[in-house]
Amino acid sequence: MHEPARHPSDLAKFVVSRITAGDIDGIVALYDPDAILVADDGKVLVGQAAIRAFYCSLLKSNAQFAPGREAPPLFNDAIALTSSTLADGTTIAEIARLQTDGSWLWIIDQPAIARLHTTGTPQVRATTPIGPEAHIANPLLLPLAFLIGEWNTEGRHPMVPGKRLIGRTSFAWDQGGAFLLMHSEIDAPDFPSGVALIGSDDVGTLTMIYFDERRVSRVYEAMLGDQSLTLRRDAPDMSQTIVFTPGENGSLNSVGRLSENGGAWGDDLSQVFTRA
Q1: Which element (helix H / strand E) includes 205?
Q2: pLDDT at position 117
Q3: Is the pLDDT of residue 69 over 90?
């Protein structure tokens, strides 16, 4: 069993060490089953079998490897772009995707192997992230995996009775799964776009911090159930609950409730989520 990459930059570190060790199985384990790799001659290799053959040939060449200088990864939800600059000035890039277990796999890779003009020695990328050991999955958040993905939303709100509120929401692991990141928008002027981050402490208390385009910032208690998430905020001016549960055919449902100034609870925004 090979150690999984818990941060996109781990992939570069692992591929160098596994090439040095001649560990073909370990190298191939860093790639998605349908990954694409661009060989030295520009040929596009698709799938783990073709990638295995590429690295088998590479190792037989007895090439020497040295680290390059890697830039910090760029994240877009569950996708990360990494890039490295080799000693000869060559810049290479890879794309990794976050898996449901919190690990990362390459889906597109142009290996950082470039012939130096002076010595002909191949170069392989290495990583210099800040604190990569902490960019790992938080096991207390893994029950929220059912939320991960991009969703089209249709909602209802008592403020606009009878109107269909169309929007989009995404849930993605952040920092290798240390946190859960949410983005949301609704195509109606009275409903702000927002972003939220969910994390936990060591005893299992989950908290969500929310911020939106109005510069409104709120803190919610996040409570896990059996395939459900309940968000609750209690404040003198406004208290809220939002309950997320799985729906039919892979959809999600959210039901919102609201109490203003300590008054009776009533309906708030409720939505149906379907995968984009």
Answers
A1: none
A2: 37
A3: no
